Amino acid sequence: MLIAEGVAGPEKGGGAGAAANASAAAGAGDSAIEHSDYRAKLSQIRQIYHQELEKYEQACNEFTTHVMNLLREQSRTRPITPKEIERMVQIIHKKFSSIQMQLKQSTCEAVMILRSRFLDARRRRRNFSKQASEILNEYFYSNLSNPYPSEEEKEALARRCGITINQVSNWFGNKRIRYKKNIGKAQEEANLYAAKKAADCTLAGASPYSMSGTPGPMMSPPPGEDSMGYGIPGMNGSGYSGVGGMGYDLHPESPDV
DNA sequence: GCTCATGATTCGTG
DNA sequence: CACGAATCATGAGC
């Protein structure tokens, strides 16, 4: 474990090589930063581990010579066989090696905690950029009747948002379930994006997404709302008075990361 | 510090 | 295997 993590074993020049390795392995975004942070913490653990190890070794040697001296002194008053001395030394070494084992164990634990802290994606959670959320929401509300992007669409969205396909899938999974759970509130957002899309249509003359006109059984509009489904521009007094020209800047193309 | 939003994971299901 | 649902864990606003 410790060897695998580079904690035990030969020092690697302050972990510079490992850090370079990490940043090379980290594909996208700030994961490289996180990874190097992880590496930094790891090398810190390694440093402490080696320091402690050295300290124990030194202490062990000092204690051994101390005991040897004592025995030598005692040998003046009573006969002490070399075997006895050897046994004593062995006992001391055993004791110290068990302490070192404990040190190894606690270091192991520290590394485990570090790993779970940094490498567990759940802990690494970062909110997507506003732009990415916009793109995803735009797609979601444009395809409310069938919010299930195909693999290709997921890939395209992932590229545009600068996230992975997996993240796109996660996002849609979460979005669908949460939309259903809280349809009333989500409707406001839906209106917002519908209006935005409408504005986009009138401006550009075309929508970036295909609009399937038939609301499917899955994501039908919530009851008690406008009969038009996803209230397009007019807004029927849902509080979004200025929606038509809202502060959303339109960004048909994202800076392809 | 509490609460809510949100991305990720896990598990059961068709 | 994709999806829904529940849950976890973190980030952000207050």
Automatic annotation (TrEMBL):
The keyword Cell wall biogenesis/degradation does not apply. Residues 39-73 form a coiled coil. It is found in: Nucleus. One of its GO terms (biological process) is anatomical structure formation involved in morphogenesis. Residues 121-183 bind DNA. It holds the Pfam family Homeobox_KN. GO terms for molecular function: cis-regulatory region sequence-specific DNA binding; DNA-binding transcription factor activity, RNA polymerase II-specific. GO terms for cellular component: nucleus. Belongs to the TALE/PBX homeobox family. This is Homeobox protein extradenticle. The lineage of its organism: Eukaryota, Metazoa, Ecdysozoa, Arthropoda, Crustacea.
